[in-house]
Amino acid sequence: MAGGKVYSFEEVRKHSDRKDCWLIIAGKVYDVTPFMEEHPGGDEVLLACVGKDATADFEDIGHTDSAKELMPQYCIGEVDAATIPAKLTYDVVTKDASRSEKATTSGGTWATLLQLALPVLLLALAFALQNYTRAKAE
């Protein structure tokens, strides 16, 4: 760790793009900018973890020991735990909100109906075919 500097949550949160990416994992701050292209899961995985405590995300993946051994070289300090908000709010940004709303109201209804009706129709067809072959055999 370089100098043991303590960063506020808001300071860490400012570093949230491909050219300047910091993560908080287990109370430590990591500048993973140089690792973005090398990350096996791609840079999108790292970018999805910015602006929050990424400890749970990191642990859920089940990183290898060799991955964990790389961490100290990217550690630049610690986060001040008192500055981490109790509950974070996120703004969901969509490319075309009106288009996605249309898809969920019209297309979404038909897709749900089809997902429910198709198995029932297949079962009815199988039952009818079974009864037809049984009646024909008698």
TrEMBL record:
| Keyword terms, alphabetized | Heme, Iron, Membrane, Metal-binding, Transmembrane, Transmembrane helix
Q: Where in or outside the cell is it found?
A: Membrane
Residue ranges of the TM segments? 110-129
**Highest taxon in the source lineage:** Eukaryota
PROSITE patterns from the entry? CYTOCHROME_B5_1 (PS00191), CYTOCHROME_B5_2 (PS50255)
Pfam families cross-referenced by the UniProt entry: Cyt-b5
Would the keyword Transferase turn up in this protein's UniProt record?
A: no
What are the residue boundaries of the Cytochrome b5 heme-binding domain, all occurrences included? Answer: 4-80
Q: Name one GO cellular component term.
A: membrane
Q: Does the keyword Iron apply?
A: yes
Recorded GO terms, molecular function?
A: heme binding; metal ion binding
Q: Which family does it belong to?
A: Belongs to the cytochrome b5 family.
PANTHER family this protein is in?
A: CYTOCHROME B5, OS02G0649800 PROTEIN
Could you tell me what this protein is called?
A: Cytochrome b5 heme-binding domain-containing protein
